[in-house]
Every structure is written in structure tokens, then in C-alpha cells.
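Thread title: Can someone regenerate the structure for this chain?

I was given the following input by a collaborator and told the matching C-alpha cells would be attached. They weren't. Posting the sequence so someone can regenerate them.
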Amino acid sequence: MKREKNKMELEIKLPITKENVSKLKSGDFVYLTGEIYTARDAAHKRMYELIKDEKELPISIENEIIYYMGPSPARKGKIIGSAGPTTASRMDKYTPELLDRGVIGMIGKGKRSKEIIESMKKNTCVYFAAIGGAGALLSKCIKKSEIVAYEDLGTEAIRKLYVEKLPVIVVIDSQGNNLYER
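Best answer:
Regenerated them for you:
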């Protein structure tokens, strides 16, 4: 990750390190390239329950980014359907446990609770926003999609995606600076 002087636009090759996360600033415009995972409410609940029962998670979440998204069905010849973000606060109940176990970034839309922001600061984590209502455009950045856990959840299954230049904005950085409050 390289920041040009007086420029808030960055390209990041994933995976990202905590050192690089700590350099991101609220308001930065970022293009992500690499592997990320998707998970929504039902998948978060299942992972949370596994953690509480001291069982192994279906995927390694160490230094991973989770995109709060459940795609629409793919049209013929397409990798994935519309892939817009889900409201992040719906995952707030489960998020601190996942951050404590290594999640380094989240992509969604909307505000996060004070508890999540404190957990992000404690764990050197970043919250990115993707543009809501632009799911069809965002899907063009997805080059591979594979269900890796909870297939029975349909669109809420956990997927591993390979994205190229997925546009996101740093809303809350690892120091707790919040674009929504500026």
C-alpha cells in the first residue's frame, strides 16, 4: 500500500496487514484486489455460536475481510448476480467475537455501534463502505465466487470472492475516526 502525498485514493492488494490497516484514514477511497469473504446475518450467527461453543469455524478468518453481502442469482454466463452491501449494524451483535479472532476488515453500509468502534480500535480493524444501490456495478469487480460454508443458507452462504479494484471508502479507521460523524 502506497499513499501519494495529499491523495486519499489507494489501491490495496489483499491480504492486508494490521500495519497497513493502521495507515488507512477515514475518508480514504480504496480499490481492493484479492480474496475476501461474504457473510450476512445467518452466517454470522452460526459462526458466533461455534465460537461460544468453542468449536472450529468453517473458514479461517485471521486477517480476512468480510463483505456483508448476499448476491442475487447470477444470470446466464455471469459469475455472480447483483452484489451490493447489506446494512452492517445487523451484524453488530456478533462482530466483536469475530474481530477478536482476527477479522481485519468489514465492508457494508451504514453506521456501526460504539461497541464495534471500540472493538475495531482494540483489534486494529477497518470498516469500509460500499455504495448501496450499485450492486450490479459492484458485481463487475467480482472475478471468482465460490461457496465455502453454509450452502444451505442460499444467498447468505459464506462465499470466497476474488475481486479486482472493488471500490470502497474507509468509513471508520482503526483509530475510531468516523466519516459519518465528521
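The helical segments are 18-23, 41-52, 95-100, 114-123, 135-139.
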